Fold:
Amino acid sequence: MKIPTAMDDNSVSHHNGGQVGSQIGVSVNNKQNEEPSQSVQYSIPGILHFIQHEWARFELERSQWEVDKAEFEARIAFLQGERKGQENLKNDLVRRIKMLEYALKQERAKFHKLKYGVELQQGDVRPPPEESATEPEPVERTQWKQGRQFIKQYLQEIGYTDTILDVRSNRVRALLGLKNEDSDNSNYRNYEKQQHDRCDYSANHMVRKYDYGKEPRKTSGSSGGGYNDEGMSVQETAAVFANFEFLTNQEMDMDEIDDLDAKQTLHASGEEVDHEAEEVLNELNMLTINEVVSAGQGDEYQGGVTSGGSASASAASSSVGSGSGAGEADEETLGLGELAQLTVSNEPEAYDVAGANKESFRKTWNAKYTLRSHFDGVRAIAFHPTEAALVTASEDHTLKLWNLQRTVPAKRSAGLDVEPLYTFRAHSAPVLCLAMGAPRSEECFSGGLDGTIRVWNLPPPTADPYDPYDPAVQGAVLREHTDAVWSLASACGRLASASADGTVRLWAPRAPRPLLATLRPDDGPPPAAGPALAPSPAPAALDFADAASRAAVAYRDGSLLLYDLETGQAVLRLGCDSPANRVRSHPTLPMLVTAHEDRHIRFWDAVSGQCSHAMVAHLDAVTGLALDPNGLFLLSGSHDCSVRLWNLDTKTCVQEITAHRKKFDESILDVAFHPLRPYIASAGADGLAKVFV
Amino acid sequence: MTDGVQILRRNRPGTKAKDFCRWPDEPFEEMDSTLAVQQFIQQTIRRDPSNLEAILKMPEVLDEGVWKYEHLRQFCMELNGLAVRLQNECKPETCTQMTATEQWIFLCAAHKTPKECPAIDYTRHTLDGAACLLNSNKYFPSRVNIKDSSIAKLGSVCRRVYRIFSHAYFHHRSIYDALERETHLCKRFTYLVTKYPIIPQEILILPKLDDEVPAGESEA
Structure:
């Protein structure tokens, strides 16, 4: 059989040279002795030539193999990365499915409950377990982002720039079906065609030019070259151009690349990816169409992506657009946070917040802060809409503003004492109720036994308690009530007050003529049955309902009226025998909750007027009610010195906290939730307010 | 709301102002809450604000320190009324310093280094500082048992509080008189600090208005 070509060459060269003994090792097996006619005429030059030739060929082959090997290694790395990405993607999708399922179950339960007034038995309605936080807390998130920054830097060092990441994230989005795939794909394809030849050429050039000793560069370069066939041409082009930074010292054949290279700067780690992507993409664009896309923020790319705009640009911009938009381009990588955000951004915020709140509510609440400064019982308590601050109103005629971040070291290590930030003095009688104004208005309202309602402008949480007196803190005084004001509610810039003089009044506190309407129970529909109402029973509590278009007012005789605030007429009359102390309206459902002297908490349907549920909640009269902003939990306080947390779906008590001591027969007078943060507070007749986390 | 057998002393939401805290008195011996002393004092005051003897008569079983403490709390609470009225009249431009007579200028101790606050600031800061001190867990951890080391604090609070009275008397006489007619606050205060010596008598510079006060008086 013919021995491989080496031997043939041998035989050929044998003609030229004389016989050399060393070659016999090679030609031991040769059967070419049958060609004696071509009698060996070895000559030294010929042999040398042959050896050189062979060596060159070997070298060539070795380099070829090494290139192949590097290529395969890169390929393996890429595939592994891809597989990992797919894994994460799959996990996220599964999680999303679970979340959706859970939400669906909840919705079904709510629907069923509302429709039939009973609970739907559907087994285990648990929120999906949280293996890794979908909504990481701010501290974790910053660490996580830092980690990402580091990884980004490393990737950049080995040539894996953000454009590649962009492209990948774009692929992910394409998989998720969250982007407009068609336009992008067509962009891809056009781009492909245009770039294909050039990239081939450039890629191969890169390969040839590489310094063989430097593995990483080769990896990226060959990764660029190797994927030509994969259809990932955009990635490859990105990779190609990304490698320019490594080739600054090597000469370039292509003028275009020269151009690009000169323009491209090394990526600084702190630089926003948007800008980097923009630069690269600028150059890309210059190659294809000689358009210069504006080098503004990534957002502008969204508009500019028409034809020929690179898909990567749109990837960058869309990620910024769909993410939190804070310029954090970390969103572009295949991260859980990004995917969570991608999914969440298409849906109402409820699941997002619900997820976070579920986390915080699943634990038990512990007493953390004790607010001591009032001389007499604290009648009302309300949290600041955004900050960790709250206002308390007391029977010692004052209100106090507290900042929870200013604590005083207390004797007992478990709790922190808080000293007030500001004392509001203007009432001449016990202050009975309190309402916070709209989030940005920094104002609050208080109503007192003296029949006045006062508007206060809150000092900033950074104020010093011993600052000079600022008369501007005191705002308007509304004096139209003739008797004690027991309840205040504030929504949408309007204020509603209920007073012992029998009226409920609606105000626009900042208007020149604040009083908008006066509502009396006599104006309402006559009672359906039963004895006639005693002359103007005093309202005990009120709350806005139905996005501040209605007000629910509970009266001392136990009746509950729902007024339409446009007409001033009562549209619905509900009632029971036991006097109510508090009424609250559910933030999302048409449901009212009332707390009664007979220890019950009752749930009413605001549409039909039926009492949908009544439960014995405490051992004594229930005095405080609060609903959490998502409408999932209920907090109730009672004169039996306990605060109870209830799950609204199951109407079961999930936690009981004992707090406050009794003064006369009163104990806990009010409870509150913080609208944003995980705080709950209780106000007691012993002059203390406690905050639980 | 009173039943036949059980009396619930509560102010339910919707109670009219005149019905506020209108329930039968509870004898001190039957009060079993930790806030019994405060309840008792408030109850007696509500009954008749001018009957100083009754208000200040201490039940036998009680510790004198606790009695003084609770009364001081009640004073600080009621002084809020004076502060509210002063807020409208006592402006930093008119009363730039806290003075009573021309002899002394009082420095506000609520700051890190005593500062010469205008009168209205002095009043507010003193009341706020008194609130913090009297409610602080460090000095007064319990309401039924006062530490001996904290009794001295009561004296300094009383001194400062008295200055508020004296400033109002000398500089805002009409407000002082109106308040005094209603609540007899200064008289009660003077009576308290003389009956249960908390501060030296020399400090009490305001003239007595009637002769009901039994203990020795001093006038500047």
About this structure: Chain B touches chain A through 48 residues (CB under 8 Å). Chain B is about 50% helix and 0% strand. The longest strand of chain B covers residues 98-99. Chain B has one domain: 28-195.
